[in-house]
Amino acid sequence: MNFNDLGLNKTILRTLEEISLTVPTPIQIQAIPPALEGKDVVGLAQTGTGKTAAFLLPLLQRQIRDSHKGKFRPVRVLILSPTRELAAQIFEKAKDYGKSLNLRSQCAVGGVPINRQLKALGQGTDVLIATPGRLLDLAKRNAVKFDRIETVVLDEADHMLDIGFLPDIKRIFAKLPQQRQTLLFSATMPPSIRGLADTYLHEPVQISVARDSSVADNINQSVKHVAARQKSNELVSLIQDNPDKRIVVFARTKHGSDKIVKRLQALQIDASAIHGNKSQGQRVRALKAFAAGECKVLIATDIAARGIDIKDVGLVVNYELPSVPEVYVHRIGRTARAGTSGMAVAFCAPDELKHLRAIEKLIKMQIPSEGEVPETPPDPESNPRKKRVRKRGKQPNTSTQKTGPKKRRPKKSQKNTTGAPTSGDQGHSQNNQSNSDRPKSTRPFRKRKSKQGSKGN
Per DSSP, what are the bridge partners of residue 155? Predict the structure, then answer.
């Protein structure tokens, strides 16, 4: 089967031939016909199988029928993306597929001046690709009108409907018309996320060309069991063993990504990082340098796991295993794209074993391992460095306490009313006058007591 059998018009078919796109993928074969009919679609396929063309081609053709001429062009197609990188790539594909069509596309993401986007939207836009946060910012400035939108696409639907994006998605869908077409495309669709997605679709056509959370067969996976402090050395050795491969390394944190870059650059290894603290310009320059071969190693956090679409990525390294198993599928999907083969290596510290077991359960296979596999993760209670909690109050030192009989203090000398010193007072009687020889009137206590007695009489 080819694109001629899917109902696409001649203009789009001619464009596909010019860009050497002639054979549709399974997800495109199943998704394009119902999307052309205006039906809601849920598409589930492995990453790198052509999901972008599966929803862009039918939507562009549907907009040709009612194309607007002139300056006023309301947004009729809204495509929501979880990351800036993925939105930029969808925008480039939309321009390639629609270059012979009388349609205007625009990309609106954060990290760039909003005034440029306001000016572009003011000139008219048919297809808008945006991230949720920037879309809401534009809506507050009345730059986007939702009442004319006919079709909404949620790309990477499981990530879009995650906890962090759900509030924005609800606010956006509350502004959309009830009569619309909604399409969801993703590499994974867990049951909990599917339940949320079903609330936004009306009798959708379910399409699945692979089992849930499956991994491409042409990816050679392996895991190395190493201590956390040895991961840096293992990464250097892995890079040196694969001098001809383009490598993407996924780290968990922004600080960790920068730390890895400094370590590699100190060893004269070309590396750069992309994460949330980088500006949009820095991220674009890093991706371009990596795609051109000027940078051999790209360190990325999960913001780029769904946005890197670069050919000939030969190796993907999970420097730290993700806590969400589905993220692992997206990470290793950066290699072995468009029918090529690739490698995926994961570093697993003892405290990451639970993440590894969850990943293996999700992909329904045991990943081949290297190194000794610890039987159980270390118990935090048995940590020798754990601080001892000292109880309040001074505790007796029983090891040095004397067990002999206590010495009795000598009794105080008793007062002698006769004036003769006792045996205990002989050392002091020569120099000091006894208390009994002092006049009672000089003693305040006796004087106070005598006054009370006189009042009583």
Answer: 185
Spatial CB neighbours of 74, under 8 Å, sequence gap ≥ 6: 68, 124, 145, 148
Q: In degrees rounded to 5, what are phi and psi of residue 77?
A: -125, 125
Place of tokens 């000292």: 390
Please choose, from the candidates 170, 141, 52, the residue with its C-alpha nearest in 3D space to the C-alpha of residue 105.
52
| Closest by Cα among 171, 167, 197 to 182 | 197
Confidence grade of residue 436 (pLDDT, cut at 50, 70, 90): very low
Mean pLDDT of 298-323: 83
* Strands (E) located in 92-178: 105-108, 127-130, 151-155
Please check the confidence at residue 90 and state whether its pLDDT lies above 90.
yes
CB atoms within 10 A of CB 422: 12
| pLDDT, tens digit (0-9, with 9 covering 90-100), for 105-163 | 999 998 888 999 999 998 889 999 999 999 999 999 999 999 999 999 999 877 776 65
Q: By the 8 A CB rule, do 344 and 335 touch? A: yes
Contacts of residue 123, Cβ cutoff 8 Å, sequence gap at least 6: 71, 104
Q: What is the pLDDT of residue 456?
A: 45
User: Residue 331's closest CA among 252, 276, 258?
Assistant: 252
pLDDT band at 430 (very low <50, low <70, confident <90, very high): very low
Which of 325, 318, 391 is CA-nearest to residue 355?
A: 325
Token code pair at residue 10: 């001649």
Angle value at C-alpha 155, between 363 and 112, nearest 5 degrees? 120
Check if the beta carbon of residue 274 is closer than 8 Å to that of residue 304: yes
> What does the alpha-carbon distance between residue 73 and residue 126 come to, in Å, rounded to a whole number?
6
- Return left, alpha or beta for 111; rule: phi > 0 is left, psi -120 to 50 is alpha, else beta: left
Mean pLDDT of the chain, nearest integer:
81
**β-bridge partners, 225:** 348
Strand partners, 317: 249, 345
Provide the token pair at 65: 């029928």
Enumerate the β-bridge partners of residue 185: 43, 155
For residue 364, count CB atoms less than 10 angstroms from its CB and return exposed for 0-12, middle for 13-18, buried for 19 or more.
exposed
What's the pLDDT tens digit per position in 370-400? 877 766 544 444 454 544 555 555 555 544 4
Q: What is the DSSP string of 218-253?
A: TEEEEEEE--GGGHHHHHHHHHHH-TTSEEEEE-SS
**pLDDT range class, residue 205, cuts 50, 70, 90:** very high
> Residue 384: its pLDDT value, please?
47
Q: How many CB atoms lie within 10 A of CB 67?
A: 13
* Spatial separation of the C-alpha atoms in residues 238 and 296, rounded to whole Å: 13
